[in-house]
Design brief:
Length: about 350
DNA sequence: TAGGCCATCTGGTCCT
DNA sequence: AGGACCAGATGGCCTA
């Protein structure tokens, strides 16, 4: 593993910028050597993964042996009782050097481990319903979205019913931050206005529709202080752009009146608010996120000045995908797409909507 | 400038 | 002894 690591210069960090190494001139020099010429550097320093030969140890071992002999002599000496516990060995220069090298190797392993972890997260990003090259989901958001996605799919399988789009998106967005929610909603070409209305928030924050049994989710809609999230606000961009769900084109549900219902085509509701506390499996048990006290307050505001953090405002074209325009041409996220081709389960999901 | 996110280092713990 | 894993600390980058 280390061999692989050391043979891959990209896995080696620019450690010069780390003060910890800068303080240790010896270590810094070693790292610099590794950075400049990893293989040769490792060979020069006698470090080749964990496969150091005995001969490589010899010089140091000689010195250590002296120390150990001292210790052994102490333990076996005369009538004195043996000391318990680990022997304290003198930190000779060679021992210090070896310790440093161990630390360097451990750091490299840790880096590699985190890179692997990040690679896995990247792979996960690619199979969750929303993927953007430029606006990458954060780690925590990726995990949350993945959890919601798994739950949504399992609900589909469990109920065998075609889910309500709004509920589906709601499920996906449970506990996600506002930018991520907008991203997901944008991917699905669904205005987040449909998630929850301010009125629904006031009514206790329970929202139920569709086969997802969303009513069982313990929403906690915090009061929104933003004036843009007040009933009657006309600031929503969808008021001017109109709203056109591409759900039909995305999921092939054009024949279903359910998705052309006035609920989705009617007057635009005020900016929505969701506090996404996602309770798993309807048991009322707090999700890990809840247990950790995560409490995301989501509100959608279309005011230019109230652009969601780190996200673009959702701008839905009035024709959009209904006229055959691909999502990527409609959304500001040029590289954002639903990657059905990479997620077989999405095909199954589509099958639900096609039926 | 504060806050979020991230990469990395580091020491501790557990296991082989 | 050494590797895997973890959590805390730290500093950089970016954005509102």
């Amino acid at each position: 593993m280390l061999t692989r690591l050391f043979s891959d210069p990209s896995l080696l960090p620019d450690v010069q910028k780390y003060s910890g190494w800068a303080e240790d001139s010896d270590s810094e020099d070693k790292i610099k050597g590794e950075d400049q010429d990893t293989q040769d550097g490792m060979e020069a320093s006698g470090l080749r993964g964990d496969s150091r030969t005995h001969s490589e140890h010899e010089g140091e071992d000689d010195e250590d042996d002296e120390v150990e002999e001292e210790d052994d002599g102490e333990d076996t000496e005369g009538d004195r009782p043996k000391k318990r516990g680990p022997k304290k060995r003198k930190m000779t220069q060679a021992r210090i050097e070896r310790s440093k090298m161990r630390r360097i190797k451990a750091n490299a392993r840790e880096r590699n481990r985190m890179h692997d972890l990040n690679s896995a997260l990247d792979n996960l990003r690619k199979v969750v319903p929303c993927y953007s090259k430029t606006q990458k989901l954060s780690k925590i958001e990726t995990l949350r979205l993945a959890k919601n996605y798994i739950w949504a799919l399992s609900e589909i399988l469990r109920s065998g019913k075609r889910p309500d789009l709004v509920s589906y998106v709601q499920t996906l967005c449970k506990g996600l931050s506002q930018p991520t929610t907008n991203l997901v909603a944008g991917c699905l070409q669904l205005s987040s206005r449909n998630f929850l209305t301010e009125q629904q928030c006031q009514e206790g924050g329970r929202y139920g529709s569709g086969s997802f049994s969303m009513h069982s989710y313990p929403y906690q809609c915090a009061r929104l202080s933003s004036p843009h999230c007040q009933p009657g606000s006309n600031s929503h961009p969808l008021r001017t752009h109109g709203y056109c769900s591409t759900y039909d084109s995305l999921y092939g549900g054009s024949g279903s009146p359910e998705y052309n219902s006035p609920e989705y085509e009617g007057p635009l509701s005020p900016p929505v608010c969701i506090n996404g506390n996602f309770s798993l499996k309807h048991q009322g048990s707090a999700s890990p996120d809840n247990e950790k006290g995560y409490h995301y307050s989501m509100h959608y505001s279309g005011l230019p000045g109230s652009r969601p953090t780190g996200a673009h405002n959702l701008v839905f074209g009035s024709s959009g995908a209904r006229s055959g325009i691909h999502t990527e041409n409609v959304l500001p996220y040029h590289d954002m797409h639903i990657h059905q081709e990479r997620a077989p389960v999405y095909d199954e999901l589509n099958a639900f909507f096609h039926n």
